[in-house]
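User: Fold this; tokens only.

Assistant: Input:
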Amino acid sequence: MIYADYNGSAPLCTSVKDYLFKRLEKGPFANPNAIHYLGSKTLMGMENARAVCAKVLGADFDQVIFNSGATEGISTVFHSILKNEVNKKIIIISGIEHSAIINTANYYASERGFEVKVLPVNGDGVVDLEMLKVWIGQNKKNIAMISIMAANNETGVIQPYKEINSLCVDNGIPFLCDTTQFIGKTPFNFKESNFDYAVCSGHKLGALTGTGILLVKNPEGLCPLIIGGGQEKGHRGGTQNYLGNETLAVALNTLNEGFVKLEELSKKRNEFESKMKAAFPEVVILGENAPRLATTTYISYPGIHGQAVQIELESQDIFVTTSSACSDNMPVTSKVLKAMGVADDVGRGVVRISLCMNSPLEYYDQLTVALTSAYAKLTKVKSF
């Protein structure tokens, strides 16, 4: 079996499985906020995990806030910035953001009177940096926040996040960078990035589902979305998912060790794409002219439904998606591809192949054979 949907969700990594088997056998299990011995020991394990996460992510210990995942982190950041904002009314996002960003921004537009400005992208899915500069120049005093992702979940295209952050810093604009697809797939250092906020989800990393981290430059300025009993130093209420938080540390450590394969993996991915284009000149690689995550290929054969390709690959025990997991059941051109100006015959034909840092390189050889077979078969019965 080849699992190639890591951008959707990663299976539990082996190190996490091994850790959980041992952890579940010996304990302890208690409320980490209790003052008795078992509570204190449980809290110590979770805080050790926080220290590991902070080290791997290049953050200070108190900048790491455990939560349920990136979506909660995004909502918390919007809430913190916009809760009491009455003067600045513009929110800037891009046309390729995850639905968690788009829907949250639109909520504040409809319920609180904010204006959402959507930054366009070029044909390779890279945001228009020059237009952002113009918008900031024209609206600097009225921009409440900017939220643009580091890497896109569909195309794997890496955005000019350093330049965007510099613009925000120079103009005193809060910046949320959605790093959900970035963390774990390429090296990341929070303090070096100088972001105000970043987020990640455990299920993208091989940790337990329902876990995540919100990274905050200045935690004292955070307004809790969940009030609760003051856990996470008052930043996120509710009894902590200490077992899940411990798996975050294990998974991040494992992925961090895998970055030595980054260049080799990128080279193998590029070879795979070159072979597919040589065999089928009509094939399109979305975002191929932009910097991309080494683990992602977004490929289309115009005129062949991506779902048909997906079914063919699954019959060979290869699991991919047609776009993002949030829209995989919709046989239409995704919002990301529409923002890129991709035609429907290409957009409806896409298949997303996303591996992880520790995937065997030979997977690409097997994918070449399987996808070649699928395209050869389906070109005889083009569906549109």
